[in-house]
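Quick illustration, no need to memorize.
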Amino acid sequence: MARRDSPNSSISASSQSATSITSGDSDIDWPFGARLDTLRHSEIRETAYEIFFMCCRFSPGFGSNKGVIAYVGSTGDVVEAPSSSTPTRPAVACRGGTGMMTVTSRVKTTLGLRAGRPPPMRTMNYSMGLTALAGESPYAFMPNSPGRITLPSFPNKAKRPMTSAEIMRRQMRITIQSDNMLKKILQRSFLGQNGRRAESFILPLELLRHIKPSEFSDNQEYHQWQRRQLKILEVGLLIHPSLPLDRLNTAALQFREILLHSKMKPVDTSKNSDIMHRLSNAVTALAWRNSNTVRGCHWADGFPVNVHLYLALLKSIFDMREENVVLDEVDELLELMKKTWPILRINRMTHNVCFTWVLFQQYVITGQLEPDLIRATLNLLVEVANDVKMQAMERDHNYAKALDGVITSMQGWAEKRLLDYHENFNKGNVENMGNILSLALATTKIVVENIPGMAAGNTPGLAERDAAAANRVEFYIQRSMRNAFTKMLETGAPGHIDSMIVEVDEDPGDILIQMAADVEALAVVERENFSPVLRHWCPAALGVALLTLQGCFGVIFKQYLAKVSSLSSNLVLVLQCAGKLEKQLMQMAADDSADYDDGGRSSVLRDMIPYEVDTIGAGLLKTWVDERLAVGRESVSRAKETENWMPKSKGEQFTESVIELIKLAKVTVNDFFQIPLMSAREEMVHDLADGLESIFQDYANFAASCGTRQSYLPVLPPLTRCNQDSRLTKLWNKAKPCTSGTDTQQVAVAGGGPVASTPAGGETRRPRPSTSRGTHRLYIRINTLHYLHHHIHLIDKSLSFFPRGGTSAQPGPSPALHHHHHQLYLNRRLTPATHFDLIRASIQVSIQRVSEVAAYRLIFSDSENSFYRGLYADDVAGCRIDNALSVLKQNLKHLLSVLTDRAQPPAMKEVMRATFQAFLMVLLAGGPDRAFVRSDYEIVMEDLRQLKKMFCASGEGFVPEDVVDREAEVVEGIVGLMSLPTERLIEDFTIAACESSSAAEDQRLLMPPTTGIWSRSDPNTVLRVICHRNDDTANNFLKKAFQLPKRR
């Protein structure tokens, strides 16, 4: 017998335990006193739904449109968003406001929540319902769950929007079986008692009376359900009663005895059961206890039980698929929740506090990703503040505890982040900082102005400062800056592993130098990320931050100066760094206060205690740098007049001009850092780097001025139709020898005479390299650019290294200092290069361009006869690629013998690309000498494999196999077109041409433009394959479609 699904358990009861408020990054304090530790979150949620269902039992479809509330106003009236003059609901065509229709939520509009997302997916099928889906998996309706079920679409079934009752049931994760059972029990309980108020019922007791064990799948499941009902009564009547309870109360003692008995096995709840009779009497006696101020039935209105239950209802307003989005049906749901107020003893002020907390808590536990939630919290806080002001005399004790807890928790959470906002915020989430700052200021204002006794104990800094927004923000800035500086001092700045705490054998000067740089970086982060936000409340926010930073560094700086007794290179560098830091901070403060009056500007600058670092020698050092740079420019000008890109001897791979230029730059850099003008050198190093970069750029442009690859590409012949050769012509072409790859005259590199294609005796002679002098000069240009790039990188490292390592300002340094400098020199290779990033990138582009030009010259000019002019000319089978590969192999050997190791890989890659381009031009733009039939595909593909194998061969300087395969993908795709029947080619061309020109079927095909970028899907490429197809079908198509002439 199959096991029945439990009708009285929630969808997620088996998998979801109590949700902790401290999940993720949501370390917020629980504001509502004691937690209900004996109850799981799912049990509280199910009980809350049962109360909600009972209170709304007389609301047909739960679709009432009366009294839509955003919050309850301070005057006691319901505050609604402005509505139109028409009494009907806008943009809602049915009760419930769900389904395919757009719901305009006045609550969301009032609170500043965006409406309309995510798209509604809430529809019910009349014939199917949700019973089967809800019973399939406990995760059926959970967002982002692997078991989540999307309702299937039945086009032939009528659908209707979900009612508010159905939405609430789904949001509360209650199954349809449980919902139907609850409905049946309530109808049975209220039979003949329609006039009886819901708050006069003790709902758990009624459920225990009417739900029998037979309605559950097994006894254990019934026991769990019964324990939940008893635990609810326990927390509502014994642990947190609304009225004080005497420990020796007879009913309480009797109820505790029954609770103890129920832990072992289920309590007999049959009609004639004695224990059920005693349970009913005890619970009724406890629930109907009255006082002078509190009368009626009280089983769920004790604090904080009532708040726990009401919060479980309020949390249902968030979309299950996207938890930081409020449902568009929130208006109706809130109105229905209002019906539970009498049972839970919730009033308008408590509702506003709880609603504020729910929005805030959801914002925190969802990762602070939805700013609308915190803005809605801020809007509700305005009304909470009004409640506190206007209803100060009417507040009861429970409301005061809830208010104090919520405000304190929100304020503590916000201030914890603001007092160390450098740790908690960054450029990506700085927008959240503004909202959280508004929250801290709003809660602080409520605490100070309206909750006596809380300010001194719960609000740090209020004892010495008033609660004005600007002063409070200044307090946050000072605390956070000190925390950031202390953390940097103890653990190192972000990006640095070493701690700032000085070790025994460590020079504190190096630490202080690094600290100065990190403080400057921290100030920049403050200016760019945080000050624009803080300025809205404190106009002098950046000035306060800079003043705090300057003072913190000043304390450490003075401690260092008090311990040194002699001038050293590190001391000079420390003074230099401190002076630079001081200037930066003062400049940032001056720039920030430019828009303020003179008094505010002078105040910040006056409060900064100067470090008294003197800067000297800027003019002398600048003159020296200008003279050295002038010598470098003169060297480049001389190279432009005399350089011919041919070394004096065959063994030299670079030009004399680049060697001279690099030598001059290295001497300049070394001499620059020997000058003891410390105060000016830090600024001048950038001028020196900029000047050297300009010289290097000028020389690199000169070396790269060698034309473009387009000058070596042959002109594409006009498109024609292949001739249908006669049988005699075919026999003649078959008998005619192929001349591919046998250049009658090949020019040697050194300028030798012509080389005979076939020597005497009929023996085939190995072809000599066909590389010309012009191509050889291009190789020298490539070597020169690589040499320049490599040594620029070394110079860049020197420029980046010396400001931290430094040299001694005193002659004759000690052996220990020599050893220290030697260690710094060994670590120079670890220093990141930063000054010449642009020029190095520019040289890389120049290397690629010159390599490309050299490759195209080698293939399309030097090897023209053996490749482009001879391959497949007149006869495909007789003029294959073997001879061309032999010449290419010799040319590549020559290339590798000339180029340096660094220059070989990119050059080889460009030669490969140029070779593939030439191969495609043979197939697609080979002129009247090339004609192919479908059977030629295997020959061409085999030649392509040999060509790829040439570049994939193992050895230094060759291209990796994966790179060759990637570059050959286009070629292989186009060669693959040759294997297709002519009819298929014509069909593919027609489709591609129509798609590219948007031509209708009845219009004439247009000649596709030649882009020069060959591709299997390019209509022009397919057309060229057809033009080189030697058969009647291609000939007739080309004649009819484009009137192409025959070849001559």
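The chain has a mean pLDDT of 77.
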